[in-house]
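Hi there,

I know you've been waiting on this one. I reran it after we fixed the sequence typo, so this is the corrected version. Both the input and the resulting structure follow.
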Amino acid sequence: MKKALVISGGGSKGAFAGGVAQYLMRNQGREYDIFVGTSTGSLLIPQLALNNLEKLHHAYTNVNQRSIFNVNPFVVKKKGDREYVTINYITTLFQFLRRKRTFGESHNLRKTIAKNFSRASFEMLLKGDKEVVVSVSNLSKNRVEYKSIHDYDYETFVDWIWMSCNYIPFMSLVTKDGYEYGDGGLGSVVPIREAIRRGAKEVDVIILESENMDHNKVLGKNPFSLMISIFGFVLDQIEYHDISEGILAAKHNGVQLNLYYTPTKLTENSLVFNKKRMTEWWEQGLAYAQEKFKSNSSPLPQKKEMY
């Protein structure tokens, strides 16, 4: 019986997913045949397929804004103990003068991916029987595409991982094979159905969002930061749709579906990469999964009223 691990998009919140995955794989001994990820999930799954949790932990607890952006469109501000972002006017003006279509650029992320996921690691995965799949949004064709590691060479697959993470219009818009691509989460935040389509009969799903938002969002005071909030709202709706469709597909195909949410809202903006907070989130994910298995031997209950 094939088992799959699916990890949603969520930017810096991927550190929390790393902690949950560590507990599932190391403490519960879960082994997976299929790994499917969107955005930050696509960064996690190659190392998880290699069971290389130490390297993954190091990567997610040492990343910062410079690891991601070569042109950073954000300025981080605080309201009380909560962080939010606003526009970097100088950067944005520079992008307009260069006639760029995005507020920022993320070529440093492409370098970071290649640094942490080597050609040797890629070859090792190809020799094994694990299937690693990342989602990307083909904006030219207006569709979501799923890219398996077994269908591409190293450089091309690293490109797909990078494109899966590029949150348009704040990160790079990438042209490949005549088409323009962006973040897989623009069309599929939680790719449960893809794991089922590839034959999984049990799926663990790590969803980098809380089931219920317990506080009001901080809306920005300018069009840029308001745009970020609106994008977040749209992605939340896509996420709810993906989960609902995934539950229906699981029931129809007799698939056991185990959902793992974040217990609280971790951040107002997942494109803020703070090493200290991400280190804390990894430990929170580990402790959260441990507590859930301690209090109940079954995975997290599915709250149908959410759907």
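Quick highlight: Strands lie at 3-7, 34-38, 74-79, 82-87, 131-138, 143-148, 174-176, 179-183, 202-207, 256-261.

Best,
R. S.
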